[in-house]
């Protein structure tokens, strides 16, 4: 399940984040957060986690994700792990790789990327994610995000011009099974559409009751 989240940051927030991240001295080699295998494939810059500006941006993103209804319906998060700010400039890329199953003792069920620069400000740099129907190239407007299973192979294609800024992170879900998460999301999505269409309250109540009982049955805490 690969889903895009629109405008988790509004234009004012995107502009403010862009101003904070202008300073190049806020970034260091992406090798700092890469394992031995990943260092051979990863060519980018990473925000210094000790910098107040970087911490401010990552905590802002954590806050908006925690409040986002669609994100919560998809991920059913137990915990959002570390969030990294990535910077790609001309010549940089991240070859095809998979995310580690555990990062900082967090089981990585889902990965997300929040785009912080508009797609017309850089050339290349698509996030390419493997899927049953083939590779999907994702390049979203600033303030939008994509969330996908962490076991999917993915890559950042080479940048040939401009600068690409993103926030990337991982989620441990309360529901370990991706199939169960999919069913729970479909129930939540159906309920939302019924509420929008003015369906009978009893029908909506029944669906919510069913979903709540499945959450009790499948949740790991």
List the helices and strands and how they pair.
Layout: E1 3-5, H1 11-20, E2 27-29, H2 36-39, E3 42-43, E4 45-47, H3 52-67, H4 69-75, E5 77-88, E6 93-97, E7 102-103, E8 106-107, E9 110-115, E10 122-124, E11 127-129, E12 136-138, E13 145-149, E14 154-156, E15 159-162, E16 164-173, H5 178-197, H6 201-218
Antiparallel strand pairs: 1-13, 2-4, 3-6, 4-5, 5-16, 6-14, 7-8, 9-13, 9-16, 10-15, 11-12, 11-14
Compute the number of helices.
Answer: 6
Q: Mean pLDDT across all residues, rounded?
A: 93
Amino-to-carboxy terminus distance: 22 Å
Physical arrangement of strands within the biggest beta sheet: 1-13-9-16-5-4-2
Name the overall outline: globular
At the fold tier of CATH, the topology name of the largest domain is: Jelly Rolls
Number of strands: 16
State the order of secondary-structure elements, H for helix, E for strand.
EHEHEEHHEEEEEEEEEEEEHH
Written account of the structure:
- Helix 5 packs antiparallel against helix 6.
- The model has no long low-confidence stretch (mean pLDDT 93).
- The strands form four sheets. Strands 1-13-9-16-5-4-2 form a seven-stranded antiparallel β-sheet. A five-stranded antiparallel β-sheet has the order 3-6-14-11-12, with no helix packed on it. Strands 7-8 form a two-stranded antiparallel ribbon.
- It is globular.
- The protein folds into two domains: 171 residues, Sandwich (Jelly Rolls); 41 residues, DNA Excision Repair, Uvrb, Chain A, CATH 4.10.860.
- It is of the alpha+beta class and 221 residues long.
- Helix content is 34%, strand content 31%.
């Amino acid at each position: 399940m690969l889903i895009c989240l629109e405008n988790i940051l509004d234009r004012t927030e995107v502009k403010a984040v862009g101003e904070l991240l202008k300073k190049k001295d806020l970034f260091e080699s992406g090798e700092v957060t890469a394992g031995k295998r990943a260092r051979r494939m990863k060519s980018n810059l990473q925000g210094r986690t000790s910098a107040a500006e970087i911490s401010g941006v990552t905590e802002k993103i954590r806050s908006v994700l925690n409040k986002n209804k669609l994100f919560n319906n998809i991920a059913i998060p137990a915990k959002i792990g570390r969030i990294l700010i990535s910077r790609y400039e001309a010549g940089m890329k991240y070859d095809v790789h998979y995310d580690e199953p555990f990062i900082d003792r967090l089981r990585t069920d889902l990965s997300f990327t929040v785009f912080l620069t508009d797609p017309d400000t850089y050339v290349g740099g698509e996030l390419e994610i493997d899927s049953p129907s083939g590779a999907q190239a994702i390049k979203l407007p600033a303030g939008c995000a994509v969330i996908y299973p962490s076991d999917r192979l993915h890559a950042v294609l080479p940048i040939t011009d401009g600068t690409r800024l993103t926030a990337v992170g991982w989620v441990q879900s309360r529901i370990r099974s991706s199939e169960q998460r999919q069913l729970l999301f479909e129930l939540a999505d159906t309920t939302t559409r019924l509420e929008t269409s003015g369906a009978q309250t009893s029908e909506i109540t029944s669906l919510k009751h069913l979903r709540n009982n499945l959450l009790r049955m499948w949740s790991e805490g």
